[in-house]
Write a structure and sequence with these properties.
The complex is a heterodimer of chains A (603) and B (85). Chain A has 25 helices and 2 strands. With 603 residues, chain A is an all-alpha fold. Helices cover 80% and strands 5% of the residues of chain B. Chain B has 3 helices and 2 strands. Chain B is elongated. The chains are: A mainly alpha (603), B mainly alpha (85).
Chain lengths: 603, 85
């Protein structure tokens, strides 16, 4: 059976499953559409949250990010998991007790202000739209790679898929499809990882294989990898090469950004009780960790495999003991077929610059001294000959590099789509909820009937899908800045305002509004100064290089400073103005205790 | 004890548990994995040092344990203060 047929079968089966769930889980009320009627068990919600959270970036790009940078990019691993501890203790249980449907709704009620609610909606829309564009392009890329359709056809198929279950089922449909998508994506991620760990280290668990020894010569895997990459002129894998301050700040920005992402927070509105919200955050992290503890193994091992492909001697750590791979082997050997496959996509490319019939892969910047400098001189190298290696190839080409059967490749295709679609659906629900519940019902037409609001919710969901698809077809400049923009805004606006709303009775309307504005504007200013105004390239006032960052803080890490500004301004302004009204202080008292959460179900 | 005092005591106890968890959360991630890594570099594990393990695996495992610890402690606290569901 051809690879194309296998891909078609696996993707087709997974889609049939999602459509089946869509038909079974139709929503009949706004409570079902926004919060799955608060009947989702903590374990199921944990699984759905994991799929909601783990995007195309987690599935496809993260292992590559870690592979090519090593220890320094552990920031992603800790940052994208540590936020769940904050969610479980600081936000999720109290927002569940509050018992409404959207994040801006809490901001509006707690700070007794329509203005605050609207600012919340604007932040939510910027965050979620930036984020969803990346998912839509991910769907397009995966489709075009595995099903031989054009990018845009792939995108429309993906959009039609999301339309089916999210317009029909709302949160209810999305929750149960996300559970199914989690199962698909985790199987797809784990199978190649187990194979590659077995081949290299003899460990079944990639998590222990990472710290194990190589089958080839019984030397420690990580020590050998360090040896090989430094031989080739790259930074050592396990060493620390950036600044400590920025590493701390970036990790913290990702953590509080994660805790402030609206599409993640609303998942915790679906469980029956406050205690379930706490427990559910734990389950979510268990399911996330199943991928996040495997990712560093996948990244480092596929980088090792890439190096041994290019320099066969590297398999035992003796990088230059054998000549580099020959051009003839790359172009004709059956076990190098994957290189030819990926050359077509533009993610991998090579060029025999010095015409010696060998393809030498090394880091030109690191070739000034040592053994590598001798090799460059002896072999007359004119520069690195593996001219393109895209990060994403580490996960996508992994099954082919490790020579795994065709059905594994087909599962990876279905898994990549599951990761992108599940996150897109969660984001679209957050967007459409903000439009139909916060704008239509909250601001434009407060007297809208239950039926009318449900219809408005479905229409805004359909419109959001259309907008996201069009933006996915023509990604604007800001789409590539998800980490800086979405996480920066979530960290500097939503996380602080929610936390203050719960943990302080003194922060009032004026303080919250001033704090949010100060947090957002300072963060946007810092990002725009380095990335260009509104991300138009060439309009940046300062160069986006570590030497020019203030105190070495990167634009993507600035959300932490923005959050501190938000807290500080809110505190000062609130203390200079009157206390919040008594009923608001009572609201804070009531969300702090779990009892009575069940009553909040019917709204 | 009035309701008000009881709910104050409940909230203070919750804050105390949160501080303990936050301290551990910060110690394993910002401490062991980043700032204190050079100090722990003598402790070797699997071809690298303890700080690397915390950065890529250990802190995630501690995070999971922390959430379940917090959830369990809060369930007990809810019952003790009569505010459970």
């Amino acid at each position: 059976m051809s690879q194309f047929t296998l891909n078609l079968i696996f993707i087709g089966l997974s889609f049939a499953l999602y459509i089946g769930i869509a038909i079974w889980a139709r929503a009949g009320s706004t409570a079902e559409f926004y919060a799955a009627n608060r009947g989702v068990s903590p374990v199921m919600n944990g699984m759905a949250t994991a799929a909601d959270w783990m995007s195309a970036a987690s599935f496809i790009s993260m292992a590559g990010l870690i592979a090519f940078t090593g220890y320094d990019n552990s920031t992603y691993l800790m940052g994208w998991t540590g936020g769940y501890v904050l969610l479980a203790m600081l936000l999720a249980p109290y927002l569940r007790k509050f018992g409404k449907f959207t994040v801006p709704e809490f901001i509006g009620d707690r700070f007794y202000s329509k203005t605050a609610r609207i600012i919340g909606v604007i932040c939510l829309l910027i965050i979620s739209i930036t984020y969803v564009i990346g998912q839509m392009t991910g769907v397009g890329v995966t489709f075009s790679r595995y099903l031989e359709v054009s990018n845009s056809t792939g995108l429309w198929i993906g959009a039609a898929m999301v339309f089916m279950y999210s317009v029909l089922g709302g949160m209810k449909g999305i929750t149960y499809t996300q559970v199914a998508q989690y199962v698909v994506l985790i199987i797809a991620y784990t199978i190649p990882a187990v194979f590659i760990a077995l081949q290299l280290t003899g460990h079944v668990l990639p998590q222990t294989g990472l710290f194990g020894s190589l089958n080839a010569n019984d030397a420690k895997f990580l020590a050998t990898l360090d040896q090989v990459v430094t031989d080739l002129g790259f930074n050592s894998y396990t060493g620390h090469h950036g600044t400590t301050l920025n590493m701390v700040m970036f990790t913290l920005a990702l953590m509080i950004g994660t805790a402030g992402l609206p599409h993640v927070i609303i998942r915790f509105f679906t469980v029956p009780k406050v205690s379930d919200a706490r427990k559910s955050a734990g389950w979510a992290l268990v399911f996330i960790a199943l991928l996040y503890t495997v990712a560093p193994a996948v990244g480092s091992m596929s980088r090792f495999n890439l190096n041994t492909t290019m320099w066969p001697g590297a398999a035992t750590g003796q990088t230059f003991s054998e000549p580099a791979v020959s051009l003839d082997a790359i172009e004709n050997d059956p076990d190098k077929q994957w290189m030819r496959n990926w050359q077509v996509t533009g993610l991998l490319n090579w060029e025999d610059k010095n015409g010696d019939g060998l393809i030498q892969y090394y880091n030109e910047a690191g070739a000034t001294d040592g053994e590598l400098a001798d090799v460059v001189a002896q072999q007359g190298l004119q520069g690195n000959e593996l001219t393109t290696v895209n990060n994403d190839i580490m996960v996508l080409a992994n099954p082919e590099i490790a020579n795994l059967p065709g059905w594994v490749i087909a599962i990876v295709a279905a898994g990549g789509l599951a990761a992108a679609l599940s996150t897109a659906a969660g984001l679209l629900l957050a967007i459409s909820g903000a439009v139909s519940h916060d704008l239509v019902k909250g601001a434009l037409n407060p007297n809208i009937s239950e039926k009318g609001e449900l219809l408005a919710a479905r229409i805004s969901m359909a419109a959001s899908i259309l907008v996201a698809t069009i933006l996915g077809l023509n990604p604007p400049g800001f789409a590539a800045q998800t980490v800086a923009l979405a996480f920066g805004l979530a960290a500097s606006s939503i996380f602080p305002v929610l936390m203050m709303g719960i943990f302080s009775k003194r922060i009032n309307k004026q303080g919250a509004i001033a704090g949010m504005l100060a947090g957002i504007l300072s963060t946007l200013l810092y990002i725009f100064l380095y990335k260009g105004w509104f991300f138009i390239s060439g309009t940046n006032s300062l160069n986006d290089v570590p030497a020019e960052w203030v105190l070495g803080i990167s634009p993507a890490s600035f959300g932490v400073v923005g959050a501190l500004i938000n807290f500080g301004v809110a505190f000062v302004v609130s203390n200079a103005t009157e206390e919040p009204p008594l009923e608001v202080q009572e609201l804070v008292e009531s969300i702090r205790v779990p009892r009575g959460a069940g009553d909040a179900v019917s709204h | 004890m009035t309701d008000k005092q009881s709910s104050n005591a409940y909230w203070q106890a919750n804050i105390r548990i949160i501080w303990i968890c936050i301290a551990i959360w910060a110690l394993v991630s910002y401490g062991f994995a980043i700032i204190l890594r050079p100090l722990l570099s003598a402790i070797k594990i699997g071809g690298t040092d303890l700080g690397f393990w915390f950065a890529q695996q250990g802190s995630i495992l501690v995070f999971i344990a922390l959430i379940f610890f917090y959830a369990a402690r809060m369930n007990r606290l809810d019952r003790d203060h009569g505010v459970d569901e």
